Automatic annotation (TrEMBL):
Source organism (scientific name): Chloropsis cyanopogon
GO cellular component, one term: nucleus
Lineage of origin: Eukaryota, Metazoa, Chordata, Craniata, Vertebrata
Biological process annotations from GO: attachment of spindle microtubules to kinetochore; protein localization to kinetochore
Protein's name in the database: KNL1 protein
Gene transcribed to yield this protein: Knl1_0
Pfam families xref list: Knl1_RWD_C
Listed CDD domains: DRWD-N_Knl1
Domain Knl1 C-terminal RWD: 1-110
Length: 209
């Protein structure tokens, strides 16, 4: 179930839905009834507009929350005109499902980032920094005589698409070739980011290379 929305208001003029702990609001403005069409046993209505608004305080919110918000609105903008894709009431459940699916995936990503920032030391992860829609992971291992930074570029497709990455080597000989070989064996999917970190730790940071 990906019902990530909460109905805040519904009347003849509009409906208001909240997502992600009330940080994203969707306002659907209704037009006149459509002759001969019904939705939920009531006359269907045309939809005049669907407007999204962010209520996240980016100055106070943690970087992971800001990233999640950016990816959600990246998805919203990628769909073009929501009113064109959702011109009447019977289309609204699909639109809510599509938004909920992305919100759910991005929310899990936020939880993954918080986990890595809290428990990263278990994986020889010194830092997990977020800048715009990139995550910079700084690994350091005395056992492997290595220190390097792995930067991953995230998008609203996460976690269904392979993540573009780059590597900056600080100490040792673990570079882009070695990291690419490891990442190629990590399939996209649930907890993709955590599995990437776990795989890098297990395959590159346990012993001298």
């Amino acid at each position: 179930s990906f019902t990530e929305w909460e109905l805040m208001e519904w009347n003849d003029q509009q409906a208001v839905f909240n997502f992600l702990y009330d940080s994203v609001t969707l306002t659907v403005v209704f037009g006149p009834p459509i002759d001969g069409e019904f939705f939920a046993a009531r006359p269907s209505r045309s939809i005049v507009s669907l407007d999204f608004e962010s209520f996240l305080d980016e100055e106070q919110a943690p970087p992971s929350s800001c990233l999640v918000q950016k990816l959600i609105f990246q998805f919203i903008e990628s769909r073009g005109s929501w009113q064109k894709n959702c011109p009447k009431l019977c289309c609204l459940p699909q639109a809510l499902f599509d938004i909920s699916l992305v919100v759910n995936r991005c929310k899990i990503l936020g939880e993954e980032l918080e986990f890595l920032q809290r428990w990263g030391a278990k994986f020889h992860l010194l830092e997990a920094n977020i800048k715009d829609t990139e995550v910079k992971l700084l690994f350091s291992s005395s056992a492997a005589l290595a220190k390097f930074e792995l930067t991953l570029a995230l998008s609203h497709d996460y976690p269904s698409a392979v993540l573009p990455f780059r590597v900056q080597t600080h100490i040792g000989n673990i570079g882009e070739k070695e990291v690419a070989a490891v990442l190629s064996r990590v399939p996209a999917g649930h907890h993709y980011l955590q599995r990437i970190v776990t795989s890098v730790h297990q395959n590159l940071l346990q012993a001298p290379r």
